[in-house]
Amino acid sequence: DIVMTQSPDSLAVSLGERATINCKSSQSVLYRSNNKNYLAWYQQRPGQPPKLLIYWASTRESGVPDRFSGSGSGTDFTLTISSLQAEDVAVYYCQQYYSPPLTFGGGTKVEIK
Amino acid sequence: QVQLVQSGSELKKPGASVKVSCKASGYTFTNYAMAWVRQAPGQGLEWMGWINTNTGNPTYAQGFTGRFVISLDTSVSTTYLQISSLKAEDTGVYYCAGDREPVGSGSYFFGYWGQGTLVTVSS
Fold first, then answer.
1. Which residue among B44, B95, B114 places its CB closest to the CB of A106?
2. CA of B77 to nearest chain A CA: how many angstroms apart?
3. What pLDDT, in 10s, does the model give residues A18-41?
4. Which of A29, A111, B21, B96 could form a disulfide with B7 if both were Cys (CB 3.0 to 4.6 A apart)?
């Protein structure tokens, strides 16, 4: 199974400042034949189901604000919130879909400082 | 618009069974696979398995075989998760999650989520 490790477990960021979340996979999730990274990011606000933010490591889902961006390749990935807003308080998860079983990172809780 | 509406919360005793439903609307049900994801209290997300809504063929993650059955009824665009011989450790919120890409794409990430169903197992 591919193990997804997120860091940090939690972070507190001031409004308007940048938040950076890391995700590392135990093996590469880059599929060479199409040069795509099989990596998604989700946001889960308190009491809500998860919401898809990013897929293919860097493609923003329709309707997601452009302050959210994804980067990285192979085994190391980053979700960046360029200017934290109050509504971004949530837990963020990465997920690999390179090979079953699909696996999620442990989550990173983002709070306001 | 796409909607996944799940059945309501359940309180069950150990050893009982539960069947959670997830009704889809707003898209062609058989074009997108459906997965089930568990979230234990205060914990992260765990993929349980999925079902090919075209063929009806389910696939289960290790740890979710035997007591767990994923099924569907295409006539009512509904997916089901049945858990038998319930244990206290089955307590959690169960989400259905619709694939963002069409069946057969080979990629499984979830663009649509149900609201979640809390299953509590307690004597």
1. B44
2. 20
3. 999 999 999 999 999 999 999 999
4. B21
